[in-house]
Specification:
By secondary structure, this protein is of the alpha+beta class. The protein has 3 domains: 1-19 and 103-238, ATP-grasp fold, B domain (D-amino Acid Aminotransferase, Chain A, domain 1); 21-101, Dna Ligase, domain 1; 239-393, Rossmann fold. The protein is built from 14 helices and 18 strands. The protein binds guanosine-5'-diphosphate (GDP) and manganese (II) ion. Residues 20, 44, 46, 52-55, 60, 62, 99, 101-102, 104, 130, 199-200, 212-213 line the site of guanosine-5'-diphosphate (GDP).
Length: 399
């Protein structure tokens, strides 16, 4: 789960990381008012969206007056900000963060990530701040400083001093750099984060080290033990199809194609998507109904897949290990009786009680297309909409 910049800054500040004074606003008037509260004569208005690259896309504006703050905000509110990280549909701007301007002397890149190959938290830093890390690694790979943290002992001060030295931080500011690095690391560990990124971390004209931007991502599977983090979820920043699924305990990833996939297990979901592509189609989603697929769960999955207007065929691919094919078949039949499904439905079942499952599908009288292998299922799904087989095979059951 991602959170907003202002939320990440509040968390990091709680761990001793220096951040600029700032205030949140939900309207242009409020933004101007909050800027007056902050005082000073230079402010930065920042669109709060779950994506980086806002600066280049018009989502970060440096302002020197009330009027400028209001007009910048008017351009932002309600608009979708499209950055290289949002995809073409963009992310809605419903909140802005107003910050007191900071005199920047140097910009540094600082990131903490979960490095799966070393199984450690890895610190990635570069004196080439301001650029995205992808650009830095393409253009200035030698400038990247890396360090991994041994979990048994945690981040050591000597590692922080080494990083500070490699980044060319003045000796007088080493202590501040240690505090910043240790603060980020503790925030990462204590909240089960998977990423903390400060880009840029700046050295100011008055010799302070300040996090000018902040991004944090958390492990969804650990959110249950961090209710205060789970509370920060902002559904306005999520793909509506994915939020609906998350609310129903299903894992769903929306894609751009037109074949809806209902599958059990992430590995099988990936294999199904690959096979659809091999058969010349494009999956509309990745939907994993998990183990123990009750008829209700299958019906929920159908409802979710059918709410995506792009779906022109649904492929159900279940391998019943813990599940049983007859339960899944019952679920499919029940779902088709309850949910309006007016596109071809292709079902491939394998595993426990497969014969019984097939019998239930056959006896249902519903025009379900059955397939015995994954390749056959994928070809039939692709063929079903391509050759307009759909006339005969369309399922129209409305309750
Ligand atoms: P991003 O583009 O989404 O990563 O947004 P950032 O928060 O990193 O802001 C983009 C750029 O705006 C930064 O790299 C800075 O150059 C500039 N910026 C942000 N805050 C300030 C500030 O307080 N003062 C000045 N002068 N520039 C700022
Ligand atoms: Mn940034």
């Amino acid at each position: 789960m991602d959170i907003h910049e202002y939320q990440a800054k509040e968390i990091l500040a709680g761990f001793g990381v220096d951040v600029p004074a700032g205030a949140l606003a939900y309207s242009p008037e409020q933004a101007a008012y909050r800027a007056r509260e902050l005082g000073g004569d230079l402010w930065v208005v920042k669109a709060q969206v779950h994506a980086g690259g806002r600066g280049k896309a018009g989502g970060v504006k440096v302002c020197t007056s009330d009027a400028e703050i209001q007009s910048s905000c008017e351009e932002m509110f309600g608009r979708k900000l499209v950055t290289h990280q949002t995809g073409p549909e963009g992310k809605g701007i419903y909140r802005v963060y107003v910050e007191a301007g900071v005199p920047i002397e140097r910009e540094i890149y600082l990131g903490f990530v979960l490095d799966r190959s070393s199984q450690r938290v890895m610190i990635v830093a570069s004196a080439e701040g301001g650029m995205e890390i992808e650009e830095i690694s393409a253009e200035k790979p030698d400038s990247i400083v890396r360090a991994t943290v041994e979990p048994a002992v945690g981040l050591q001060d000597f590692q922080c001093r080494q990083i500070a030295f490699k980044l060319g931080i003045e000796p007088a500011m080493t202590q501040q750099m240690i505090r910043t690095l240790q603060g980020c690391y503790r925030a990462f560990r204590e909240h089960d984060a998977t990423m903390v990124e400060i880009n840029p971390l700046v050295v100011t004209g008055d010799s302070r080290i300040v996090a000018l931007d902040a991004k944090m991502t958390f492990d969804d599977n650990a959110l249950f033990r961090h209710p205060q983090i789970a509370e920060l979820r902002d559904k306005s920043q999520e793909d509506p199809r994915e939020s609906r699924a998350a609310d129903r305990g299903l894992s769903y990833v929306g894609l751009d194609g037109n074949i809806g996939c209902i599958v059990n297990g992430a590995g099988l979901a990936m294999a199904t998507m690959d096979t659809i592509k091999m058969a010349g189609g494009e999956p509309a989603n990745f939907l994993d109904i998990g183990g123990g697929a009750t008829p209700e769960r299958v019906a929920k999955a159908f409802r979710l897949v059918m709410s995506d207007g792009n779906v022109q065929a649904v492929l159900v691919n279940i391998f019943a290990g813990i599940n049983r094919c007859d339960w899944v078949a019952k679920g499919v039949v029940q779902a088709l009786e309850e949910v309006q499904v007016d596109v071809p439905v292709i079902v491939r079942l394998a595993g426990t009680n497969v014969e019984e499952g097939q019998k239930i599908l056959a006896q249902s009288g519903l025009p379900i297309i059955r397939a015995s292998t994954l390749m056959e299922a994928a070809e039939r799904a692709v063929g079903a909409w391509q050759n307009d087989l759909s006339q005969e095979t369309k399922v129209r059951v409305v309750k």
